[in-house]
Amino acid sequence: MATEFPLPRVLTYPASAPPSLIAQGAEGRLYKTTHLHADRPCALKYRPPKPYRHPILDARLTKARIAAEAKVLDRCYREGVPVPVVYALDAAAGWLMIEWIEGIPVRQGINEWLGERPEDDAPPAEDLDETPIVDLMKRIGQAVGSLHRTGVIHGDLTTSNMMLRPRPQGSEPEADAKKKAVAGDVILIDFGLATQSSSDEDRAVDLYVLERAFASTHPRAERLFSHVLEAYKHSFKKAHSVLIKLEDVRMRGRKRSMLG
Amino acid sequence: MANDTATTGKKKRRIALGCEGSANKLGIGVIAHDVETGAATVLSNVRHTFVSPPGTGFLPKDTARHHRAFFVRVAKQALSDAGVRIADIDCICYTRGPGMGGPLTSVAVAARTLALLWGKELVGVNHCVGHIEMGRAITGAENPVVLYVSGGNTQVIAYAEQRYRIFGEALDIAVGNCLDRFARAFEISNDPAPGYNIEQLAKQGRVLVELPYAVKGMDCSFSGILTRAEELAAQVKRGQKGPEGELLTPADLCFSLQETVFAMLVEITERAMAHVGASQVLIVGGVGSNIRLQDMMGAMAAERGGSVYATDERFCIDNGIMIAHAGLLAYETGFRTPLEESTCTQRFRTDEVFVKWRK
Ligand SMILES: Nc1ncnc2c1ncn2[C@@H]1O[C@H](COP(=O)(O)OP(=O)(O)O)[C@@H](O)[C@H]1O
Ligand SMILES: [Mg+2]
């Protein structure tokens, strides 16, 4: 797959390990490569030029978005929000190099946990201990809470834009495969649409986006989402009023309708 | 046209007459569906547009009056073009919404009258679903992501589980409304459509002026852009220089406006395509007849290994045939709108319709 697209120039210099294309989204491409040391992996996010848009507009948008993403990540990192650290960037060339996060996307972890559960949203069999998945929901709520406390709005919260990073070996007792799937630290990624704001409204919309994405990605786990909001509520002082605002935003979302 | 039941005694095709008038176009069309294959044939497609003077928009009251005044003429024309007899028609379809209240009501009343007069059943149709189904029928796009762009709507839609689901939309004004209102700032003619004239002017534009760019995930907004473009238009009219000291022309502004808003539309469409894993995109609605938008969308789709599907103004711009087509699809699944429920509504979301005719 990696050979299909021309590499950004920064990846064409000799390296001990060749870069590999990890993901191709609407926005851009994500490569795994190394930073300075051969044993320090990193992610390179590249926004290639969009041939459909006017070159001046394209250059302006690419530059602004790379710069904004780097700025927000840096701010989060300094404030202790779990995000990858920024190593390097060239906004005009359209790339951003950040820490490589080991592990799997939260989406995958949740799906592995759910496994072959029946289609409906019925509560699980009585003997199933839900503590591990409920804990994960709480960690998600805390991560989003710490982000919002910092004055950052993610803009595209989904379970694909969160990674589950395994804790260092030995720090956890042996767990079975299912428990392992939902263990680890939640790290927020993909700040391509992030903005800075501390308003209840913007925070509530951010949560609403996550709520909708969660429901459509994990319909069988929808009822677990309340634990995300519960943990969020206790994660910072103003969280309570954000959740009240969320009610409004939900109503609007359902009612929003357009004229012909 | 031959009698449909003459030879076999069994109907070979079903025929619907569709009436559309949710905005300033009054359209009446007749469509036939082959009973065996479902293939659609356009028998007639007649339209009469209410054009307001340059610098003004169309008001509901005047538009409704226009539709009432022209309904009989347009209906007669549609029937004679189609060459069908009243007895051949299976149902009368009309736009239930969304749209402007007055014009919608005028056409609904007229459709009801025809149904009573001829003893036909009524089918109320969602205008947006009409656009989508007509676009699919004309282009043959099977399961595309749909960009629906018109004077009143901006939506990115994908089909899933018997509904057209809205993935993204304009959060304030529709893109067509933004273009139309900008046209008023320069008194650009509304004939045949303000957007068409902006498109022609934009071809002479050279300078790309910076305008706000407002995309949020799969949603976008246009009111900030309109405000800025109107400010710039006022400056251009006064002969003032642009922000970088350059002499701007109306053509430059038309060009910049198109480049900016279309880039936004293509971007949100691409995001939806990536999200659902689609490579086909279908553009419907009046703004969809813009060639620059079609070209930009084509370039994006090509990069994703897919292609763009679009129709020309006959099917893109509001018309009666799309209402006939979508109505007949519903009719064939047993859907009817009883006379006492044959109302219309200004607000009617695309995803409210249960799409029984698709798997
Ligand atoms: N820092 C990172 N470390 C490891 N994997 C990452 C990192 N950033 C992104 N990824 C992986 O790449 C995928 C796409 O990256 P993302 O930043 O979300 O870009 P986009 O969704 O805009 O294409 C993620 O879902 C994740 O699997
Ligand atoms: Mg992502």
From TrEMBL, chain A:
<dbReference type="GO" id="GO:0016787">
    <property type="term" value="F:hydrolase activity"/>
</dbReference>
<dbReference type="GO" id="GO:0000408">
    <property type="term" value="C:EKC/KEOPS complex"/>
</dbReference>
<comment type="subunit">
    <text>Component of the EKC/KEOPS complex composed of at least BUD32, CGI121, GON7, KAE1 and PCC1; the whole complex dimerizes.</text>
</comment>
<keyword id="KW-0378">Hydrolase</keyword>
<feature type="domain" description="Protein kinase">
    <location>
        <begin position="16"/>
        <end position="260"/>
    </location>
</feature>
<dbReference type="InterPro" id="IPR011009">
    <property type="entry name" value="Kinase-like_dom_sf"/>
</dbReference>
<keyword id="KW-0819">tRNA processing</keyword>
<keyword id="KW-0779">Telomere</keyword>
<dbReference type="GO" id="GO:0005829">
    <property type="term" value="C:cytosol"/>
</dbReference>
<keyword id="KW-0067">ATP-binding</keyword>
<dbReference type="GO" id="GO:0005524">
    <property type="term" value="F:ATP binding"/>
</dbReference>
<dbReference type="InterPro" id="IPR000719">
    <property type="entry name" value="Prot_kinase_dom"/>
</dbReference>
<comment type="function">
    <text>Component of the EKC/KEOPS complex that is required for the formation of a threonylcarbamoyl group on adenosine at position 37 (t(6)A37) in tRNAs that read codons beginning with adenine. The complex is probably involved in the transfer of the threonylcarbamoyl moiety of threonylcarbamoyl-AMP (TC-AMP) to the N6 group of A37. BUD32 has ATPase activity in the context of the EKC/KEOPS complex and likely plays a supporting role to the catalytic subunit KAE1. The EKC/KEOPS complex also promotes both telomere uncapping and telomere elongation.</text>
</comment>
<keyword id="KW-0805">Transcription regulation</keyword>
<keyword id="KW-0418">Kinase</keyword>
<dbReference type="GO" id="GO:0004674">
    <property type="term" value="F:protein serine/threonine kinase activity"/>
</dbReference>
<dbReference type="GO" id="GO:0005634">
    <property type="term" value="C:nucleus"/>
</dbReference>
<dbReference type="GO" id="GO:0070525">
    <property type="term" value="P:tRNA threonylcarbamoyladenosine metabolic process"/>
</dbReference>
<dbReference type="InterPro" id="IPR008266">
    <property type="entry name" value="Tyr_kinase_AS"/>
</dbReference>
<dbReference type="GO" id="GO:0008033">
    <property type="term" value="P:tRNA processing"/>
</dbReference>
<keyword id="KW-0539">Nucleus</keyword>
<comment type="similarity">
    <text>Belongs to the protein kinase superfamily. BUD32 family.</text>
</comment>
Automatic annotation (TrEMBL), chain B:
<dbReference type="Pfam" id="PF00814">
    <property type="entry name" value="TsaD"/>
</dbReference>
<keyword id="KW-0819">tRNA processing</keyword>
<feature type="domain" description="Gcp-like">
    <location>
        <begin position="45"/>
        <end position="324"/>
    </location>
</feature>
<comment type="similarity">
    <text>Belongs to the KAE1 / TsaD family.</text>
</comment>
<protein>
    <recommendedName>
        <fullName>N(6)-L-threonylcarbamoyladenine synthase</fullName>
        <ecNumber>2.3.1.234</ecNumber>
    </recommendedName>
</protein>
<dbReference type="InterPro" id="IPR034680">
    <property type="entry name" value="Kae1_archaea_euk"/>
</dbReference>
<dbReference type="GO" id="GO:0002949">
    <property type="term" value="P:tRNA threonylcarbamoyladenosine modification"/>
</dbReference>
<feature type="binding site">
    <location>
        <position position="290"/>
    </location>
    <ligand>
        <name>substrate</name>
    </ligand>
</feature>
<keyword id="KW-0963">Cytoplasm</keyword>
<dbReference type="GO" id="GO:0005737">
    <property type="term" value="C:cytoplasm"/>
</dbReference>
<dbReference type="InterPro" id="IPR017861">
    <property type="entry name" value="KAE1/TsaD"/>
</dbReference>
<keyword id="KW-0808">Transferase</keyword>
<dbReference type="GO" id="GO:0061711">
    <property type="term" value="F:tRNA N(6)-L-threonylcarbamoyladenine synthase activity"/>
</dbReference>
<keyword id="KW-0012">Acyltransferase</keyword>
<feature type="binding site">
    <location>
        <position position="131"/>
    </location>
    <ligand>
        <name>a divalent metal cation</name>
    </ligand>
</feature>
<dbReference type="InterPro" id="IPR043129">
    <property type="entry name" value="ATPase_NBD"/>
</dbReference>
<feature type="binding site">
    <location>
        <position position="195"/>
    </location>
    <ligand>
        <name>substrate</name>
    </ligand>
</feature>
<feature type="binding site">
    <location>
        <position position="148"/>
    </location>
    <ligand>
        <name>a divalent metal cation</name>
    </ligand>
</feature>
<keyword id="KW-0539">Nucleus</keyword>
<dbReference type="InterPro" id="IPR000905">
    <property type="entry name" value="Gcp-like_dom"/>
</dbReference>
<feature type="binding site">
    <location>
        <position position="318"/>
    </location>
    <ligand>
        <name>a divalent metal cation</name>
    </ligand>
</feature>
<keyword id="KW-0479">Metal-binding</keyword>
